[in-house]
Design goal:
heterodimer, A: alpha+beta, 7 helices, elongated
Chain lengths: ~220, ~210
């Protein structure tokens, strides 16, 4: 798609319109240059943005995020030393400990919001973006895209990161605490997810998918 | 500037494609197509009230049970804020107070005002209403931080008789409250506020 440097490709001969999320005012989707956003004429809310290098950025951040999630699962994020008692905690370790001490529901909440959904989010984004960077799409892309959009608000890595900082401050008075690889991986993961998800507009992804889908149907 | 609904068109809630309302499903992504979110106000209020019900035990009951040298001591959210305040860790105390007590409270108020504006009971400056809705959706999730703090402390502090931390009943209530208010904000349709404004002015707004 190198010949489209300023806008994204989309299905020709279709009326591309968008209704503002806030006030429902109808607009034509006039593609804007990279780095710019289109605003609603009525209420000035952002309608869509054209992010530079959107697909490559999403892929790069997505792959990095997957590597970091692996580190988060393996390595402890805080190690505590209280009067000779060494304790360290990994994210799966905290989930198991919660489960054992009678907090099964909370254990599930943490596992889902911090591990399961982020992995699902990144995998679905890569499933869409890697083929799209070659102008293709894999079967079931529309369903994967719907899943990607609906789980976005429930990915809470950045909130978990704030939680580790608050816990750290609670523990400082009790014991010597050390930050592990897991802690820095959570921080990196938080930034990578923001970069991957924020790097591509929803309308751009759907337009590209629609085009790729019609090409696939045309060939078959 | 006409709303899409006036031309019997609707933007898909999932993929944003504008289609004719005669289609029951979006032709592009297959999601059900509605002009406005279905039963938006009722669902928002129902989930919001359920959230308020969960907010009460979340703040009154202990969120953690700290056993130190064989003595079990319950710890509430407000108690934690007070401890940090006494330690002179003011930024932490303020952060926790804002995230766990103020944000949920303000969120219930904001949703109440938005629902009132959407049914025409009160009038609200439209850009202001937009901003409130946007903020409500953006900051609501951050209250989950308390549940994560409990999870981390339980995972880390288990040193036998010396000190052990277990999750308290408020942790579940708190998590439920955050999830319910997120669902409530998601159920609300800000387009209803603009419908009211257009109805009251009986002509399109122009700037």
């Amino acid at each position: 798609m190198s010949h489209h440097t300023h806008t994204w490709p989309r299905l020709p001969g279709v009326n591309h319109r968008v209704a503002c999320h806030f006030c429902d005012t109808l607009h034509d989707v006039l593609l804007v240059d990279e780095g710019l956003a289109a605003h609603c004429k009525q209420c000035q809310a952002v309608l869509y943005r054209n992010r530079p290098n959107s697909l490559h950025r999403a892929i790069a951040f997505g792959i990095t995020a997957l590597c970091l999630i692996t580190l988060v699962v393996i390595f402890p994020f805080i190690t505590m030393n209280a009067q000779g008692n060494m304790n360290s905690v990994t994210v799966p370790g905290a989930v198991v400990m919660l489960w054992k001490s009678g907090g099964a529901l909370i254990a599930c909440t943490v596992a889902i919001f911090v591990i399961v959904l982020p992995v699902t989010l990144i995998c679905s984004l890569l499933y869409l973006c890697i083929p799209l960077s070659h102008g293709k799409c894999l079967p079931g892309s529309a369903g994967i895209m719907r899943c990607f959009l609906s789980i976005q608000p429930w990915v809470m890595v950045e909130i978990f990161f704030l939680g580790t900082i608050v816990s750290l401050l609670k523990l400082i008075k009790l014991a010597d605490v050390e930050l592990g690889i897991g802690f820095w991986s959570v921080a990196g993961l938080m930034l990578c997810i923001a970069g991957a998800v924020g790097g591509i507009d929803k309308i751009e992804l759907w337009d590209r998918l629609e085009l790729a889908e019609s090409r696939r149907k045309g060939k078959a | 500037m006409k709303p899409a609904l006036d031309e019997n068109l609707a933007a898909c809630h999932t993929c944003d494609k504008v289609s004719d309302l005669s289609h029951p499903h979006c032709p592009r992504c297959g999601a059900p197509l509605h002009g406005r979110k279905q039963d938006s106000i009722q669902r928002c209020l129902a989930l919001g009230f359920a959230g308020i019900l969960a907010y009460i035990p979340a703040n009154l009951m202990p969120i953690m049970l700290v056993t130190q040298l064989g003595v079990e001591e319950p710890s509430t959210i407000l108690g934690g804020v007070a401890t940090f305040w006494e330690m002179h860790a003011y930024p932490v105390a303020i952060t926790i107070f804002i995230a766990s007590v103020m944000i949920p409270g303000l969120k219930f108020l904001a949703l109440g005002f938005l629902c009132a504006a959407a049914t025409g009971k009160i009038t609200m400056d439209p850009p202001f209403a937009n901003r409130i809705y946007w903020l409500t959706e953006l900051v609501g999730r951050w209250s989950m931080v308390d549940v994560f703090v409990v999870a981390i402390l339980v995972g880390l502090v288990h040193m036998g008789d010396l000190m052990t931390i277990r999750p308290g009943p408020a942790a579940i209530a708190f998590g439920a409250m955050v999830i319910l208010t997120m669902l409530a904000a998601h159920a609300f349709d800000p387009k209803l506020i603009w419908d009211q404004i257009r109805k009251s002015q009986n002509k399109p707004l122009s700037k």
